Amino acid sequence: MKPIVAIVGRPNVGKSTLFNKLVGDRVAIVDDQPGVTRDRLYRETEWNGKEFVLVDTGGLEPRNNDFMMSKIKQQAEVAMNEADVILFVVDGKGGLNPLDEEIAYLLRKKNKPVVLCVNKIDNFLAQQDDVYDFWGLGFEHLVAISGEHKVNLGDMLDVVVDLVEKVETPEEEEGLKVAIIGRPNAGKSSLVNRLSGEERTIVSNIAGTTRDAIDTVIEFDGNKYVLIDTAGIRRKSKVEESLEYYSVLRAIKTIKRADVCLWMIDGSEGLTEQDKRIAGIAFEEKKPIIIVINKWDAIPDKDGKTMKKMREELYAELPFLSYAPIEFVSALTGQRTTKLLEQAEMIFAEYNKRISTGLLNTVIKEAVIMNPAPTRKGRVVKINYATQIATAPPRFVLFCNYPELIHFSYSRYIENKLREAFGFDGSPVDVIFQKKN
Ligand code: GDP
Ligand code: GDP
């Protein structure tokens, strides 16, 4: 998804002309008659290697009730809502117009970055005073340009690209980022409410304008946590959300941002296919995961063996997640919920753990002596040495003469030996075999 930059402004200020200059070929209709450009036009373009989609909108004339105008206004509204950055074009030659002020008011309500382009400044030295008035509209970013004569368009695009980049990488909250994922009704928002309400120390609750999730910052035991919950969004747009595709996309985005994932399952219902798909995403993104069985309070006839039995069943169904701890909680009563935070902290440390090369090689050597890599067709695999090349997740390279002979099960054996020796609870571990004689 490329960022969207929308051009808005009242009719006849030069939007289409600017659009055409920026996208390179003449696609929008330009005419001296106001309001000729009726439809939104989308074109991909780039500046300094940064790609974005430029949208030309019809004129935005808030007071005009004429049918055509209200249609145009509607379309401009849609474009503004979609946009990441807005290019607000005004006519520098014609001077400040009451309509500009109305549009400025609408734009301020959108709370999106705006670049005010004072257009038709074909000769800056002669027209400096024309530009001056427009500062009064109160926008931080103002550039005097001439769309028609391509004056200052580079400076304007620099500002646009800067803002686009800021929108794409919003400043992150401090604290461990804990994504709460799971299918609808698993109890995600109940858990967030429980964790934030219980501690009564919500620092802020930021509704992400460009994000697909709600961040809640909480403090517990002197540590900050950013709880990223996808549930709030789902409530807002239940209709679109019926398409599972979107929930999967959201899950991927959320998981990518997270330090640790809490994957919630409704314990009173057990695993569904949708559950497994969500778990698969977290696994593929190689994030540390805690499996949270929620609604423990609603599980009937529990006894001393229920947890153990459920654990075994889950690991049997999800062998690829055998490294993930399983916790049983009740978001409703708060049972064991704060333990999740402590555990998230702990597995994040495991995820970032670095093992010294000396210690690592001692463990690998021992593992190989106990269970040598199988020979095939008379060839003997010899593992020379190992080194950790990355953390988050920990990644180990084992150098050997015939990496192609190493079977998955042997790689698994090495991984298990590393886990026995060093822990890595809750964290994925990568083991790679590489050629070296
Ligand atoms: P829109 O209705 O906002 O899309 O405006 P247009 O792009 O159709 O332009 C309206 C009129 O302003 C046309 O006659 C353009 O030639 C003229 N115009 C556009 N940009 C400039 C400019 O930079 N300088 C001058 N002098 N005229 C311009
Ligand atoms: P989300 O869609 O994953 O955010 O789930 P919600 O937090 O909205 O919870 C869905 C439903 O399950 C609500 O009716 C909750 O009251 C209920 N629920 C959530 N957690 C628990 C729990 O621990 N025990 C019980 N019995 N019900 C719960």
TrEMBL record:
<protein>
    <recommendedName>
        <fullName>GTPase Der</fullName>
    </recommendedName>
</protein>
<feature type="binding site">
    <location>
        <begin position="119"/>
        <end position="122"/>
    </location>
    <ligand>
        <name>GTP 1</name>
    </ligand>
</feature>
<dbReference type="InterPro" id="IPR031166">
    <property type="entry name" value="G_ENGA"/>
</dbReference>
<feature type="binding site">
    <location>
        <begin position="294"/>
        <end position="297"/>
    </location>
    <ligand>
        <name>GTP 2</name>
    </ligand>
</feature>
<dbReference type="InterPro" id="IPR003593">
    <property type="entry name" value="AAA+_ATPase"/>
</dbReference>
<keyword id="KW-0547">Nucleotide-binding</keyword>
<dbReference type="Pfam" id="PF14714">
    <property type="entry name" value="KH_dom-like"/>
</dbReference>
<comment type="similarity">
    <text>Belongs to the TRAFAC class TrmE-Era-EngA-EngB-Septin-like GTPase superfamily. EngA (Der) GTPase family.</text>
</comment>
<comment type="function">
    <text>GTPase that plays an essential role in the late steps of ribosome biogenesis.</text>
</comment>
<comment type="subunit">
    <text>Associates with the 50S ribosomal subunit.</text>
</comment>
<dbReference type="InterPro" id="IPR015946">
    <property type="entry name" value="KH_dom-like_a/b"/>
</dbReference>
<dbReference type="Pfam" id="PF01926">
    <property type="entry name" value="MMR_HSR1"/>
</dbReference>
<dbReference type="InterPro" id="IPR032859">
    <property type="entry name" value="KH_dom-like"/>
</dbReference>
<keyword id="KW-0677">Repeat</keyword>
<feature type="domain" description="EngA-type G">
    <location>
        <begin position="3"/>
        <end position="168"/>
    </location>
</feature>
<dbReference type="GO" id="GO:0042254">
    <property type="term" value="P:ribosome biogenesis"/>
</dbReference>
<keyword id="KW-0690">Ribosome biogenesis</keyword>
<feature type="domain" description="EngA-type G">
    <location>
        <begin position="176"/>
        <end position="352"/>
    </location>
</feature>
<feature type="binding site">
    <location>
        <begin position="56"/>
        <end position="60"/>
    </location>
    <ligand>
        <name>GTP 1</name>
    </ligand>
</feature>
<dbReference type="InterPro" id="IPR006073">
    <property type="entry name" value="GTP-bd"/>
</dbReference>
<dbReference type="GO" id="GO:0043022">
    <property type="term" value="F:ribosome binding"/>
</dbReference>
<dbReference type="InterPro" id="IPR005225">
    <property type="entry name" value="Small_GTP-bd"/>
</dbReference>
<keyword id="KW-0342">GTP-binding</keyword>
<dbReference type="InterPro" id="IPR016484">
    <property type="entry name" value="GTPase_Der"/>
</dbReference>
<feature type="binding site">
    <location>
        <begin position="182"/>
        <end position="189"/>
    </location>
    <ligand>
        <name>GTP 2</name>
    </ligand>
</feature>
<dbReference type="InterPro" id="IPR027417">
    <property type="entry name" value="P-loop_NTPase"/>
</dbReference>
<feature type="binding site">
    <location>
        <begin position="229"/>
        <end position="233"/>
    </location>
    <ligand>
        <name>GTP 2</name>
    </ligand>
</feature>
<feature type="binding site">
    <location>
        <begin position="9"/>
        <end position="16"/>
    </location>
    <ligand>
        <name>GTP 1</name>
    </ligand>
</feature>
<dbReference type="GO" id="GO:0005525">
    <property type="term" value="F:GTP binding"/>
</dbReference>
